[in-house]
Specification:
Radius of gyration: 18 Å
Structural class: mainly alpha
Shape: globular
Order of helices and strands: HHHEEHHH
Strand order of the largest sheet: 1-2
Number of helices: 6
Low-confidence stretches: none
Mean pLDDT: 90
Oligomer: single chain
Number of strands: 2
């Protein structure tokens, strides 16, 4: 699963993509609209500024805006920046490969073969989709509202 940091980063960058070329967006606006804790968002946006994906403007009319056009920011790149890898298991990572502990030798592991194929397919898809692309909104699963109510109680 994606880490909370990765999910917050994607939502913040999506918000900035939605406001592309409309001027800087205040941190509080992003935090409130995207339901991201302000302190966590500050850290995330500072990282994205260092990576060149976001520009920070200081002062009374300051805020944040994308440093690149939304079409130039791919979801695969965002996940790699925040998570380090697209692989679900360490032995299937192309850039951060590690041998799995308590496993078969890699040459004998069919799970690794499956995870490599999955990683490559997922990478191809995530590297095709940018912040400029429309994402189809899907309705919640039928039991999602029940789970949300239980979690709120």
């Amino acid at each position: 699963m994606l880490s909370q940091k990765t999910r917050y980063t994607i939502r913040a960058l999506q918000h900035l993509a939605d406001t592309w070329r409309q001027g800087p967006v205040r941190l509080d606006t992003i935090a409130e609209t995207q339901n991201i804790p302000r302190k966590f968002l500050t850290v995330i946006l500072a990282e994205m500024v260092r990576e060149g994906l976001v520009i920070s403007h200081r002062g009374r009319d300051g805020g944040y805006e994308l440093g690149l056009a939304p079409v130039d920011i791919r979801y695969g790149d965002i996940i790699r920046l925040t998570r380090g890898s697209l692989a679900l298991v360490p032995c299937a990572s192309r850039n951060a490969h590690e041998t799995c502990q308590n496993c078969l030798p890699e040459a004998d592991c069919r799970l690794r073969g499956l995870m490599l194929t999955l990683r490559d397919e997922m990478a191809a898809m995530l590297d095709r989709v940018s912040l400029a692309d429309q994402i189809t909104l899907e309705p919640p699963f039928p039991d999602a509202s029940v789970q949300e109510q239980q979690a709120a109680e």
